Amino acid sequence: MNIIITGGCGFIGNALSLFLKKNLRNSKILSVDNLSKSYSKFNQKLLIKNKIKNKKIDLGKFNSLINLKFKADIIIDCSAEPAVEISRKKINKVIKSNFLSTLNVLEKAKKDKSKIIFISSSRVYPIKSSYEKFKIFKKLKKHQTFNENSNLTGQKTIYGLTKFASENLIEEYNYSKNLDYIINRCGLISGPGQYGKVEQGLISLWMWSHMNKLNLSYIGYKGTGEQIRDVLFVDDFCKLVLIQINNFNRFKNNLFCIGGGSKNAIKLKKLTDMCEIITGNRLKISKKMKTSIYDIPYYVTSLNKINKFSNWMPETNLEKGLKEIYKWMKINQNKIRNFF
Ligand SMILES: NC(=O)c1ccc[n+]([C@@H]2O[C@H](COP(=O)([O-])OP(=O)(O)OC[C@H]3O[C@@H](n4cnc5c(N)ncnc54)[C@H](O)[C@@H]3O)[C@@H](O)[C@H]2O)c1
User: Fold this and answer.
1) What does the pLDDT read at residue 25?
2) Of all protein residues, whose CA lies closest to atom 7 belonging to ligand 1?
3) Which CATH superfamily is domain 2-339 in?
4) Under 8 Å CB-to-CB from 227, ≥6 apart: which residues?
5) 232 C-beta closer than 6 A to ligand 1
6) What residues does each domain of the chain span?
7) Which of 28, 171, 212, 216 sits at a 20 to 30 Å CA gap from 224?
């Protein structure tokens, strides 16, 4: 099977490329990535070691993929600028990298009759829904999950808008050009191989900062650290994509909410406690009171739909996942230091 993975030198695309190469017999994988991140070249080397090539293409340019001489059975679209705050400042760049790139993927898929797996984001939901669900959660002390039918109307950030627009464009191509797709609308994903920054990759940033005794701040929500996310570890996500590839017809032309679910939801303050226990280091975390208008206090995924289609469930719980991240950071610290 021939597979193109866009964003193969990014966190998720790289993990998927290596996982599928190992677990999908006779697969030929080609990564397409413009190497725009500090860790791109490092990840590219990991691909090369595993006999996977990367084609350096800027997917944010019209028709940049259509002439690529590699016909794929499946294109897995993992390339994007994933940082919400960056999308506030660099609107042009983010629309090109996140939306125009999807058009390029679709045109290539149309030409080669490829199937598509698209990695979307939970940020398609309006910001106000997060506040509403958080309020109910605090009152009832029971998680209020987002599902495929949750409200989508309202401001969602430019990043969220590009992902929502890409989802819609894929559905249009399915309707008018018979392209088959699976959309995985993902919440927070973490794991070894992620280089967290304040704007993206919270779990990894928290662990790295604890390990190296660096400064951290609780940002927004009066600096309380009360915000909540569910966490899915990348290995579990890769396992899901493998199931979807092997059973494409069962999943096809559906959108699924994918995440760690209620069992893997964690308050930022509690994440601090867990990082302290694992690293043995205690930080004095400062408070930044101001909440960004782009931030959300709460997101937890409903896994009901994906569980109707398969018995896939996240296998890695928070404790195990965090320990795996720590172990990877400890072993590789000198090689990866510059990427944080
Ligand atoms: N990490 C998460 O928590 C999370 C959650 C939900 C959805 N997603 C989505 O998953 C995908 C992968 O995210 P990630 O965390 O691996 O991010 P990442 O930044 O590590 O990887 C994205 C990759 O895309 C490449 N890229 C960006 N613009 C490009 C362009 N114009 N042309 C070619 N390549 C380009 C980058 O070089 C990078 O290697 C994104 O679509 C993101 O929106 C991520």
Assistant:
1) 87
2) 121
3) NAD(P)-binding Rossmann-like Domain (3.40.50.720)
4) 220, 221, 267, 268, 295, 296, 297, 298
5) no
6) 2-339
7) 212
